[in-house]
Design goal:
The complex is a heterodimer of chains A (229) and B (109).
Chain A: H1 2-8, H2 25-60, H3 62-71, H4 74-99, H5 103-133, H6 149-185, H7 195-219
Helix pairs in contact in A: 2-3, 2-6, 2-7, 3-6, 4-5, 4-7, 5-6, 6-7
Chain B: H1 18-39, H2 46-66, H3 74-100
Helix pairs in contact in B: 1-2
Classes of the chains: A mainly alpha (229), B mainly alpha (109).
């Protein structure tokens, strides 16, 4: 397939964005996408270890997990889920705009993505503040009025680790999008070269997927059975 | 890969219509609403199973359409399948250990 290109593809100038070790732009695009996916696989395993810890402790301390999950404000969790889904849409539209050489579309959608990411983090800040106010942060000052304080404390440890790691990914994602926005502003991307927008988008969507699982696992445990304590 | 042949200048990703992106967006929003809704109905152990089934469905739509995997190379598919396989293997073998520890009456759980 690549041999074919080398026989008839060189009668015009090279794309200036083509690195010398790639045959042509599709080859380069394919390599960068695959490389990003391999990175995302390591991310899956990274988060996977903590999800396994969650599964083990939820099995052992279901009562504490259900009590603690009831204490979390479902409104903000749902709100943030909607915010992230919107940001994934604007991210996908930013990539599409790059594919169509539409600079304005890229800039608008990237700014929306960054703003939605910032809203998510702001809401996370509101939620964390409520945890500190209610003394449910694991440690010396942890207070629990339910029946399973040990399980509830483990739940909150996992809550802070999982959502904290996710929030760090959001912060990195926003930083990434600021760089992409700067490059898009300077008109670096068009239909022939949009790899950086595409693979940064893959990262953004991955972080969204992590939240798609975190939302039901953290906010919705045993909601159907009101707890009596 | 035949579609790569006509213009070596373009990067040749699949350009999907905006309506497709809005459709996936709508599916994700409806999925979120259903997740919250069924959490308040007592389905026994099916509550968790349903919540995870919806989450997996939502994630699949994001991967296939927002992340363009539907139009990606077979090699990308293999990498993603391997990732899911190893993740499930880790969960499965990890849980066979933790769930079976007290089955034989051996102390040390």
């Amino acid at each position: 397939m690549h041999a074919e290109h080398s026989t008839h593809g060189h009668d015009h100038a090279h794309n200036p964005n083509l690195q010398h070790h790639f045959m042509d732009m599709p080859h380069q695009q394919e390599a960068s996408t695959l490389g990003m996916w391999i990175f995302l696989v390591t991310e899956v395993m990274f988060f996977g270890g903590m999800f396994l810890a969650y599964i083990v402790y939820r099995t052992w301390y279901y009562q504490g997990f259900a009590e603690a999950s009831h204490h979390i404000d479902l409104f903000w969790g749902g709100f943030n889920t909607v915010v992230l889904i919107c940001s994934s849409l604007t991210m996908a539209l930013a990539v599409r705009a790059a594919q169509l050489s539409n600079r304005r579309g890229q800039i608008i959608n990237l700014i929306l993505t960054i703003v939605l990411g910032a809203v998510f983090l702001g809401v996370k800040g509101i939620e964390y503040a409520a945890k500190f106010r209610d003394n449910v942060v694991p440690g010396r000052n942890f207070e629990w009025h339910g029946t399973d304080a040990v399980g509830a404390q483990i739940f909150y440890s996992l809550y802070f680790m999982l959502t904290g790691l996710h929030a760090i990914h959001m912060i990195i994602g926003i930083g990434l999008m600021l760089v992409i926005l700067w490059m898009a502003w300077r008109g670096r991307f068009d239909a022939s070269y949009y790899g950086p927008v595409e693979i940064s988008g893959l990262y953004w969507h991955f972080v969204d997927i992590v939240w798609i699982f975190l939302f039901p696992l953290l906010y919705l445990i045993g909601r159907h059975a009101p707890l009596t304590f | 890969m035949a579609e790569h042949a006509h213009d070596p200048h373009a990067a040749h990703g699949h350009i999907a219509p905006i309506s497709m992106y809005l459709g996936v967006f709508a599916i994700l929003m409806v999925g979120t609403a259903i997740t919250v809704g069924i959490a308040y109905i007592d389905l026994g152990f099916m509550n968790t199973a349903m919540a995870l089934a919806i989450a997996v469905t939502k994630a699949t739509f994001v991967v296939l359409y927002f992340m363009h995997v539907r139009w990606a190379s077979r090699l990308t598919w293999v990498v993603i399948a391997a990732s899911i396989f190893w993740l499930l293997l880790m969960f499965f073998i990890g849980m066979t250990d933790y769930m079976s520890r007290d089955w034989m009456g051996v102390p040390g759980r």
